[in-house]
Amino acid sequence: MQSPFPPLFIFLLITAPAQADTTNGVVVTKSASQQVSIGSPETFTGEVHVTSRFQRAAPARIGGGDVTFDAKARTAWHTHPLGQTLIVTEGEGWVQHWGGKAQAIKPGDVVWIPPNVKHWHGATSHSRMRHIAISESLNGKSVEWLEHVTDDQYPADTSN
């Protein structure tokens, strides 16, 4: 039976440590040592939890985290200088780029947001949503936060 998770997801779970026990140059961060942080109201609407947050030191540029959005929770509009990949692992959510229609996302979906595309993502109004978010930094910066997504911009669910 094929795994419901893409190989990249499994790879990230294995290679996404922040603090570590090093053996022969390989870094492993035990799950028990990872802190959960609450999404800032400056950059999120609703209840958002981030675990497994990671950022690699130069010369690496990769960073990201495991993000859980409660129902109706979402990011503010934002951009990434080198783009962003989202791997949905639980629940149902939305992703939308500026000027486009909101697109439904579900477990197993992999979302690519190109560099400098203004977008947001979050849960539907009836389901929480969890994803792995991955982006690279350029000149030390991986995200540019913008204005909040208004209630009028947030899609009305049609699938309660």
What does this structure look like?
This protein is 6% helix and 41% strand. The protein has one helix at 7-15; strands at residues 21-23, 26-28, 37-38, 44-45, 48-55, 62-69, 74-75, 78-79, 84-91, 93-97, 103-105, 110-113, 119-123, 129-136, 144-145. The chain has a domain at 35-138: Sandwich (Jelly Rolls). The chain starts with 6 loop residues before the first helix and ends in a 15-residue tail after the last strand. The strands form five sheets. The chain has a six-stranded antiparallel beta sheet with strand order 3-5-6-14-9-12, with no helix packed on it. The chain has a three-stranded antiparallel beta sheet with strand order 11-10-13, with no helix packed on it. Strands 1-2 form a two-stranded antiparallel ribbon. A hairpin with a 5-residue loop joins β10 (93-97) and β11. With 160 residues, the chain is mostly beta strands. The model is unreliable at 1-22 (pLDDT under 50). It is globular and about 50 Å long. It is built from one helix and 15 strands, in the order αβββββββββββββββ.
Fraction of helical residues: under 10%
Structural class: mainly beta
CATH class of the domain at 35-138: Mainly Beta
Strand order of the largest sheet: 3-5-6-14-9-12
Concise overview:
The protein contains one helix and 15 strands. The chain has 160 residues and is mainly beta.
Task: Give a topology summary.
Blueprint: H1 7-15, E1 21-23, E2 26-28, E3 37-38, E4 44-45, E5 48-55, E6 62-69, E7 74-75, E8 78-79, E9 84-91, E10 93-97, E11 103-105, E12 110-113, E13 119-123, E14 129-136, E15 144-145
Antiparallel strand pairs: 1-2, 3-5, 4-7, 5-6, 6-14, 8-15, 9-12, 9-14, 10-11, 10-13
